[in-house]
# Entry
Amino acid sequence: MLPTPDLSHLTQKDYEHVYEPAEDTFILLDALEKDAGVLQELKPRLCLEVGSGSGCVSAFLGKILGKADALYLCTDINLHATQSTLKTGEQNDVPLNPVLASLTRPLTARLHHAVDILIFNPPYVPTTTIEAVGAQAGRDIQGSWAGGNDGMQVTNELLESVESLLSPQGLFYLVAVKQNNIPKISHHMLERYGLISEVVLQRRAGREHLHILKFMHLWHDSHLLRVV
Amino acid sequence: MVRLITHNLLACHAKGCTTNNFPLAFRDVQLENREAEYNPEFLKGFMPKIEWNALVSTARELGDVSLPAECPEPGTETDEFLHALHHVLMEIHVEEGSMVCPNCQHVYRISNGIPNMLLAEHEIK
Ligand SMILES: C[S@@+](CC[C@H](N)C(=O)[O-])C[C@H]1O[C@@H](n2cnc3c(N)ncnc32)[C@H](O)[C@@H]1O
Ligand SMILES: [Zn+2]
# Structure
């Protein structure tokens, strides 16, 4: 068992603006730990976490892969979150590279089929469209959870770039809840982009039924191994 | 922490700005050198993702002329070359300053080591 990254430098005051790691964060850590062997074998060189918040997930990934073995890029629309991510990297001796940006926008042009590990724990809670639009514009704590229609408003935009970002052996980990309509997401990604998916872990936490989905190109080794 | 490895992956994404929008030009930068762990395997694995001409010209603008104009063929990298590449990509930090789009002149600020790549809603593609 790898320890959860040290977040003792973050205070309740930080968590007024930055998402405090919760059950969704922890199931994502558990999924990465479960896949640790596969991840290490892949020798990823470029990891990108969208919406890194506290930076807890990327710091954990850095512990799995090694701090000097990959580049850890992180984006968030919330300035406080990017600052926390930077500090969490320092605290845990994993160089994290936060970029204040929405989704992968300034990176998409250069990262064509270049991302080896892509991760997103999105704002997935179903809300009104207005609430989600307001939260995106506000770039504060509300942006951590307000997901609009089906909780998919923010995630849907990223889904349209995933295939173009992933390297041939790349893996994409996504946190989703039941209301996000997981069969629909999987079907869309396969039909539209030829990306297959599987549920790595699922768990009930309070009212949420959390899932960790993993997407990859059809020809991916770990997929071939499974069907043989 | 804007290192040249990150800078090499950022392009302008303002509305209508799709050509000549890379590399962003550094302006008024404060640099800091910080030692990083050297890993030649990582560097070799990462090289295909680098836009070589952009890296060399940016390093030169920041006063580092250690990189050759031509990227060595895979498998022919010398130790000396890999150490120079390591320093340029991983150890030069831009803490403050800005990055300007060569095409539309949009200015992206860097403050406390974090690049602000956000655009206002009307500036988005
Ligand atoms: C559920 S929190 C997850 C935080 C952290 N990754 C974790 O697992 O604890 C969602 C994060 O996504 C960020 N976010 C929301 N919309 C975003 C967008 N359009 N682009 C980038 N990040 C976004 C939020 O600011 C927040 O930090
Ligand atoms: Zn531009």
